[in-house]
Write a structure and sequence with these properties.
alpha/beta; 6-stranded parallel β-sheet; globular; 2 domains; 3-stranded parallel β-sheet; Rossmann fold
Length: 281
């Protein structure tokens, strides 16, 4: 068996095209403000990518590149101004923040109806109880990929490796919404291999290169590798040993080119949804 490779780049382009078509029909364009504190190279790459996505989708964007030494008060003041602007529908603070800033307080300061990353406790609560609202970008991108490839989680056993607030936990909630049976694994899981071998759908989101080897996968499993790591040679890779997994899985996402592009595409969808909340369509 050789797995079908799930093309995140192609699907992301499709999603962004759909967003652009809707944006072109609006008299008031959606607006996204992106705040970058400091000069972390990886964060700069991500922010530049989001700016390109906005341009591609016809979404108005503003970037605030702030010095690393900015005070908590100054950052909160900026967010307060953006909260009050009608032309800004979404506010995104690029993480991580410098250590002297209180990340939780910063994220709480963003109005829930502008929280396009879905980090605010209100939106997390809406996700938990199954109400409509923003969806975290990476887990939502995973679900969109499964749908695109006609993979129905209902009745399947989904094993998620990783329990972060950004991916693991919300991914579990979205899988439950689709009637999967969900197991969440983490650093205290006693026998990770045994748990992974039970998975019809495996979502790897631990952030450890080579963690999931070929002998940890059930024949025919669907493998979604969310992680982005660098191996010993400095090459980008996920948590899954791809060369081995592609021979056992029925479907698999590559790294790069899998979930990553979908994360950014879902941010565009969330910004469009925020514009809807604000009466722009």
């Amino acid at each position: 068996m050789s797995a079908t490779v799930m093309d995140g780049k192609a699907l992301a382009a499709k999603v962004k095209s759909e967003v652009r078509c809707k944006v072109e029909s609006l008299s008031k364009k959606p607006g996204l403000a992106v705040i970058l504190v400091g000069d972390d190279p990886a964060s700069r790459v991500y922010v530049n990518g989001k700016k390109r996505d906005c341009a591609e989708c016809g979404i108005y964007s503003e970037e605030y590149a702030l010095p690393a030494e900015i005070s908590q008060e100054e950052l909160l003041d900026l967010i307060d101004v953006l909260n009050g602007r009608e032309d800004i529908d979404g506010i995104l603070v690029q993480l991580p923040l410098p250590k002297h800033l209180d990340e939780r307080q910063v994220l709480l300061a963003i109005r829930p109806d502008k929280d396009v990353d879905c980090f605010h406790p209100f939106n997390v609560g809406q996700l938990m109880i199954g109400e409509d609202g923003f969806l975290p970008c990476t887990p939502a991108g995973v679900m969109r990929m499964l749908d695109e490839y006609s993979i129905d989680p209902a009745g399947k056993h989904c094993v998620i490796v990783g329990r972060s607030n950004i991916v693991g936990k919300p991914q579990a909630m979205l899988m439950l919404r689709k009637n999967a049976t969900v197991t969440v694994c983490h650093t205290k899981t006693a026998d990770l291999k045994a748990e992974c071998l039970r998975a019809d759908i495996l979502v790897a989101a631990a952030g450890r290169a080579g963690l999931i080897t070929g002998d940890m996968l059930k024949e025919g499993a669907m493998v979604v590798d969310v992680a982005i790591n660098r191996n010993e040679q400095g090459r980008l890779c996920g948590d899954v040993v791809y060369e081995a997994a592609v021979e056992r899985a029925s479907f698999i996402t590559p790294v790069p080119g899998g979930v990553g592009p979908m994360t950014r595409a879902m941010l565009m969808e969330n910004t469009l949804y925020a514009a809807k909340l604000h009466g722009k369509w």
